[in-house]
């Protein structure tokens, strides 16, 4: 039996229907509000590209941490989690149930199991490591933490530098910081699952919908300087390439769908390592029936 006003987590890969289920569940519970655990829907200037729920899709249910930041403001999992925790406390204090939904793995984990106390960044060390050739930074990470290096995208300088910084400052391997969570989640979690072919089709439809409803124009209107987090928004670089004349619209649509499928695959891999989230088959089941199942 779920405790009164205990948070509920609705998870799943992008395109699986999390937002619709969250709204239906909130309506079924009667007194519930939704908190986004999405890294990018928090930016107000990119609602189409980030597939943020519209006012109509929110259907009268209060939502938090959607469209609240300027694209020049940085965001990270720890900062987002602290904002979410403040929302959770406020919602519960009003006798309402928080529903947390999103597919950004570390953002979800920090909210559900607490913020891993990895050492904060050191500007001087960061500058020193950033100045290294990538192969030198990779070598140092491999020497300091072979297992951590094996689980790092060694082609991404930002990941290599930050992970090396954590190992050097904290004096412990990355596995320590990544596994240093509270043993139990703060509330039950449910993971919506669909067959890969079905999810791929939904993702393709989403890519078409985004382009038909202004994603290109949305990106064109963005300011020149974006925060490091906003710069990583899925599909942003692809649309910029299209605006620069490097790809056709058809090529852009195909690339956007492919990139999103690849992201969904990474999400599924992460979710398989989170046994606290109960799998829920969402294929042939109506949204209302899923919400009914979760609201018991």
How would you describe this structure in keywords?
296 residues; alpha/beta; 6-stranded parallel β-sheet; 15 helices; globular
Give a structural overview.
The protein has 296 residues and is of the alpha/beta class. It has 15 helices and 6 strands. The protein has helices at residues 18-29, 55-58, 77-93, 105-113, 123-130, 134-144, 146-150, 157-170, 174-179, 196-212, 215-220, 228-231, 236-243, 249-272, 287-294; strands at residues 8-11, 32-36, 63-64, 97-101, 189-193, 277-281. Strands 3-2-4-1-5-6 form a 6-stranded parallel beta sheet, with helices on both faces. The longest helix is centred in the last third of the chain and has 24 residues, at 249-272.
Mean of pLDDT: 91
Largest sheet, in brief, is:
6 strands, parallel
Terminus-to-terminus distance: 9 Å
Return residue spans where pLDDT drops below 50 for at least 5 consecutive residues: none
Q: Helical segment tally?
A: 15
Strand content: 5-15%
Query: What coarse outline follows from CA principal-axis ratios?
Result: globular
The radius of gyration over CA amounts to: 20 Å
N-to-C order of helices and strands: EHEHEHEHHHHHHEHHHHHEH
Q: Can you list the strand order of the major beta sheet?
A: 3-2-4-1-5-6
Structural class: alpha/beta
Helicity level, as a percent range? 40-55%
Number of beta-strand segments: 6
